Amino acid sequence: MELFSYPDNYQFKHPLEHTWTLWYLDSNRTKNWEDCLMEVGSFGTVEDFWCLFHHIKRASELKPGCDYSLFKKGITPMWEDKANKDGGRWIINLEKRITHAKLDHYWLEIAMCLIGECFHGLNDKINGATINIRSKLNKIGLWTNTEDRSTVVRIGSFLL
């Protein structure tokens, strides 16, 4: 007797609205900035997101000068990318006194908000997010593709 019957198109993974790419920047002053930017991997399902995030260093383990960036696939985390050039970003400054656990939690929360499309009605205006690990002040940035003031303010309200 068969206990389960699955339709032919049944998926065991949970697809996301978009495919996302994780980037890593290892700052090296002897190289061109673009040469320091590396694509870690892309994912389009919830399960693949968790697989990737469980197998990379936590943000708190990165050395100063390094970044993670999580952007919709096809968008590079740089202002020169045509998807970013007319946009902006919200910056959250994270003082060095916050714990590593909180830093990692904030990065995970913004990543989950991105892939979960939590910016109700504004998801198409958001390209990605970055976390910058620095010696004096860490930062999380939420990158947008619009300069429309009311839209930018609405996006910022999700960060409060």
Description:
The chain is 24% helix and 31% strand. By secondary structure, the chain is of the alpha+beta class.
| SSE topology string | EHEHEEHEEH
Structural class, by secondary structure, is alpha+beta
Summarize model confidence as the mean pLDDT: 93
Strand order of the largest sheet: 2-1-3-5-6-4
Q: Estimate percent helicity.
A: 10-25%
Quaternary status: single chain
Number of helices: 4
Distance between the ends: 54 Å
Largest sheet geometry: 6 strands, antiparallel
- Can you count the beta strands? 6
Ranges where pLDDT stays below 50 over 5 or more residues in a row are: none
Name the descriptors.
160 residues, alpha+beta, 24% helix, globular
Task: Summarize the structure in short.
With 160 residues, the protein is of the alpha+beta class. The protein has helices at residues 33-36, 46-54, 100-115, 149-157, and strands spanning 15-26, 37-45, 66-72, 89-95, 126-132, 137-144.
What is the topology?
Blueprint: E1 15-26, H1 33-36, E2 37-45, H2 46-54, E3 66-72, E4 89-95, H3 100-115, E5 126-132, E6 137-144, H4 149-157
Antiparallel strand pairs: 1-2, 1-3, 3-5, 4-6, 5-6
